[in-house]
Write a structure and sequence with these properties.
single chain; seven-stranded mixed beta sheet
Length: 950
């Protein structure tokens, strides 16, 4: 099963019982055939997928697509340029992505970081991305800010070059190189380069990675940057999508005004990239500092517009994409020789990469796993998939498409679907053709496509545990950092930047309540943009529910819940979800355990019935416990190799102490000793203590009214009664130890980057009113424009991103700082962080008028786009309940924020945060890092990576 796992680590880097045999029966010795799932026809789901649009082209060639969606007063602005890394000539790899970074550095009539005005206008879902085939920039803004957003986007399209300086280029070169180090520093992080170079011949457009090489990035000069812009960033080489609270007539008026005057540029004709075939199988073995061996098998296949692309994608899902995939069933659940498997078809514009991956269970032979993987693949090719397998793939795909339509912008909303179709296929409705191809695909078509493309020679990369190869670092003095003045750019005068109109307060949906027959409370809000329903059963447990001697018990129990029930084994349960287009996941934050359902409303009743089966009738089969125990131990071993995971395992105990429920690894995975000792009886007892109707609440966001939802929930959960044993209560009586400043250095050899994580436990609790503190911290640490990120990333270029935030725990909250930095700047980075904190808190350099205005505007205007989706509304319902906030809390934020003063923010930060109490964890190469840390005058303790994770 695919599950959410612990939700704490991500939030933090961004927060004796009576036997229960009567409550949960042991798994039966033999299971009957699973009951048939009654799902809505796939054709009904496909019919729900529709994005009406208007298309027009300006005289300068800019293609504009407009989609009206007035459910929220926001508009998604998405600009897609027909240029990506495949268009980079030899010696200029990484230029497309580097230029994406430069496009955020300011334009001629909007100088300075684009993040400043975008934050000020309340933009959400704001980012830019580069891939093989395109570069895009997007943001969702309140409707009154649309004109300013269009001014900004048009200014960097037509009036950019005069704003790019050598200093900006050098800065962003360093940032991009740290982004590259951050990715390369991960386990298996160097494998992508080997794969591309093996699969594609010299000179092929797809042979190099989008991030590029250090040497080519070093060589980027002002002239090459200017040439790249003039060759690729004209309006006739772009697609602009406006989706949301706008009409086609208004869109035409505004785009003519802001984009119309921009002159045409060259049109990039994407390289014709043939599908290469290896002359013979290529087998390569590499070594990395990983916990598990891994086998990757890959082929180059046709791109997204080829008739075989959808059949290959369906075949990949059957093979290793579905939770019930053949590789999962045979290698993970069957002989258990792998701890995880996957298969995917990465379909790009001109080509695709079909890839199979198997992470080998410790003690198993990678060669044997590879052979077994090929055997399963060959069986699928020889006999084809079943119609039932295809139906489940198509239903899942349609369900994801439907639910993706709720969002107008972002990474996967309606603007993205329209832009991709126009850019790659010349047809904004290409998504419909693709969906129709899924719905019509047959077993014979899938078999034929796999036979045609996957019987060719493959590239196989086996990664074994060992020392990494030498890392190719950037030059100390990049050749492109030539400070000879570049020829001056003649600037063109434009109209003034438009002002932002009055942004109305957010209208959060009305919150309704009901109770089931057993007293369980249902907390509900309606969102009717798409026919979908999201449900969360929250239980007052979480990672803090673990006893110190049994760390990892809560999450292991939750993992087991969706690995089989008393009527459905793990495979049958996965198949039932797939047949319904539903997703059931289990997970935990620090304070809550949750079982969540995401479903399309036409299949809501059987999906809720399946959810109830998972929640009320888990089998907790001993065989599944042993399998998941082995997987968990493998996961813990993997954490020893991952920089962020190593830090988040070590820091909680250093801050909270070993006896606090919060003083345990944020991953929730526990440690080897405790996981090995957990028994089936422990699992059942833990379930009875925490997962029970008198300890939970049901949160629902749906397009259907509460009056329709409640009877379905009551039929599924209303007769669920708690066991006779008392429900558990978490014990927070252990005192939090006095802060002792120190640095714990976890030695991870061969790390090109160090991962810094530090913090302290604040006197405040999550249930306190932290609005003022969080607003102050937007200025100091929790924003792209924060003092610490502006310094380490945007001034010094030592990091790809730095953050400091208050974690969302219900009890005593930690203040957490995270800073991945290049290895040779580790000590100076901590020194710089402390300087920024001390200047702000003690040095008289508090919140400036500009920072106050930006924070107030950003935190109030962004509310319009913050609750666009049902997932966002569901999250607000749950967090309001956890933290004791009123139902209308989102609607109270603006008035309270508008009243804030700089003095209040300064006082809130000074009262809460004290960097002299920070405990730091640094994960990096001790031979490089320790001398830097010793120079700081803070006690340093060195631990091994293996010991730190135990």
């Amino acid at each position: 099963m695919r599950r959410t796992g612990s939700l704490v680590a991500a939030a933090a880097l961004l927060a004796v019982s009576t036997p229960v045999w009567a409550s949960v029966a042991p798994a039966p010795a033999a299971q009957a055939a699973a009951p048939a799932v009654q799902a809505a026809p796939v054709a009904d789901l496909v019919a729900e997928v529709d994005i009406p649009y208007t298309r027009f082209t300006l005289d300068n060639g800019l293609t504009v697509l407009v989609h009206e969606d007035h459910k929220a007063p926001v508009v998604a602005v998405s600009v897609w340029y027909n240029v990506g890394s495949k268009d980079e000539p030899a010696g200029k790899t990484g230029f497309a992505h580097l230029f994406e970074h430069l496009m955020f550095g300011g334009s001629e009539n909007a100088p300075g970081s684009y993040f400043t005005p975008m934050r000020n206008m309340g933009a959400t879902d704001m980012n830019g991305t580069t891939w093989f085939d395109r570069t895009n920039y997007f943001e969702t803004v309140p409707t009154p800010a649309l004109e300013q957003a269009l001014f900004m986007e048009s200014d960097r399209m037509g009036y950019m070059l005069g704003a790019i300086s050598q200093e900006t280029l050098d800065l962003q070169r360093g940032v991009v190189q740290n982004e590259k180090r951050q990715g390369d520093n991960q386990p298996y992080g160097l494998n992508q380069y080997k794969q591309l170079e093996a699969l594609f011949p010299e000179g092929h457009p797809y042979r190099h990675s989008t991030i590029g090489s250090m040497a080519d990035l070093d060589a980027a000069s002002m002239q090459t940057v200017r040439d790249w812009f003039t060759s690729n960033y004209g309006p006739n080489n772009a697609v602009l999508v406006l989706a949301g609270d706008i009409t086609p007539a208004k869109a035409r008026e505004l785009t003519e005004k802001y984009f119309g005057p921009i002159a045409k540029g060259p049109v990039n004709t994407p390289a014709q990239a043939p599908v290469p075939t290896l002359s013979a199988p290529v087998n390569e073995t590499t070594h990395d500092r990983v916990s598990n061996a891994q086998v990757e098998i890959s082929w180059v296949v046709p791109g997204m517009l080829d008739a075989d692309s959808v059949p290959l994608s369906v075949g990949a899902s059957v093979l290793g994409g579905l939770a019930s995939s053949r590789l999962d069933n045979e290698l993970v659940r069957g002989d258990q020789s792998a701890v995880s498997v996957s298969a995917s078809n990465g379909a790009y514009h001109r080509v695709g990469i079909f890839e199979i991956s198997a992470t080998v269970k410790p003690g198993e032979d990678p060669a044997a796993v590879e052979a077994r993987t090929r055997e399963i693949l060959n069986g699928l090719i020889a006999n084809g998939p079943t119609q039932d397998e295809i139906n489940r793939v198509v239903t899942q795909y349609a369900s994801r498409r439907i639910q993706g339509l709720e969002q107008v912008g972002g990474f996967g909303g309606k603007a993205t679907a329209l832009a991709e179709g126009q850019l790659y296929a010349g047809d904004p409705e290409h998504y419909k053709k693709e969906l129709a191809a899924y719905a019509a695909v047959t077993p014979a078509q899938v078999q034929a496509a796999m036979q045609k493309w996957l019987t060719r020679p493959a590239y196989t990369l086996t990664t074994l545990v060992g020392e990494r190869e030498a890392y190719a670092e950037a030059a100390a003095a990049p050749s492109g950092a030539n400070h000879t003045p570049a020829p001056e750019i003649q600037r063109v005068a434009r109209m003034a930047r438009p002002e932002i109109g009055q942004v109305a307060n957010v209208d959060f949906p009305a919150v309704e309540r009901a109770r089931l027959s057993n007293g369980m409370e249902v907390i509900y809000a309606q969102r009717d943009a798409v026919p979908a329903t999201k449900i969360a059963l929250d239980f007052d447990a979480g990672l803090a529910a673990d006893d110190r001697a049994k760390l990892g018990l809560q999450t292991l129990m939750l993992d087991l819940m969706d690995e089989g029930t008393r009527t459905l084994n793990a495979t049958q349960l996965a198949e039932a979800q797939e047949a319904l287009g539903a997703s059931i996941t289990t997970g935990a934050t620090m304070d809550r355990s949750v079982v969540q359902l995401s479903a399309v409303t036409p299949n809501l009743k059987p999906s809720i019935d399946l959810l109830a089966e998972v929640v009320r009738n888990p089998a907790f089969a001993s065989a599944e416990l042993e399998r998941l125990r082995a997987t968990r131990l493998s996961r813990i071993a993997a954490e020893r190799t991952q920089p962020a995971a190593l830090a988040s395992r070590a820091l909680p105990e250093l801050m909270y102490g070993a006896d606090s429920p919060y003083g345990r690894p944020f991953s929730g995975n526990g440690d080897e000793t405790s996981v090995k000792a957990i028994t089936e009886a422990d699992i059942r007892t833990d379930y009875a203590r925490w997962i029970r109707p008198d300890n939970g609440k049901i949160f629902v966001v749906s397009d259907r009214p509460l009056s329709e939802i409640t009877p379905v929930l009551d039929a599924a959960f209303g007769q669920w009664v708690p066991p006779a044993s008392a429900k558990a209560v978490k014990d927070f009586s252990a005192p939090i130890p006095a802060a002792t400043p120190k640095i714990v250095l976890i030695d991870r050899p061969q790390s090109p980057q160090s991962y810094i994580m530090g913090g302290e436990v604040l006197a405040a609790s999550g249930t306190d009113d932290l609005l003022m503190l969080n607003a102050a911290n937007n200025v100091l640490g929790n924003d792209f424009l924060s003092r610490i990120n502006s310094d380490l990333r945007e001034t010094k270029s030592w990091s790809y991103g730095v953050n400091a935030s208050v974690a969302g725990f219900a009890g005593r909250v930690p203040y957490l700082v995270t800073a991945p930095v290049q290895a040779d700047k580790t000590g100076p980075a901590i020194e710089a962080l402390n300087l920024q904190f001390n200047d702000f808190l003690k040095g008289g350099k508090g919140v400036t008028p500009a920072e106050l205005e930006r924070t107030i505007n950003g935190n109030t205007r962004r509310l319009a786009g913050s609750y666009e989706t049902s997932a966002a509304v569901l999250g607000a319902l749950r967090s309001n309940d956890l933290l004791g906030r009123p139902d209308d809390y989102p609607e109270t934020i603006a008035a309270r924020t508008n009243a804030l003063t700089a003095a209040q923010l300064d006082a809130a930060a000074k009262a809460a945060i004290d960097p002299s109490r920070f405990v730091w964890v640094v994960v990096g190469d001790a031979s490089v890092v320790k001398p830097q840390l010793d120079a700081l005058g803070i006690p340093v303790e060195v631990r091994s990576a293996a010991g730190a994770a135990q």
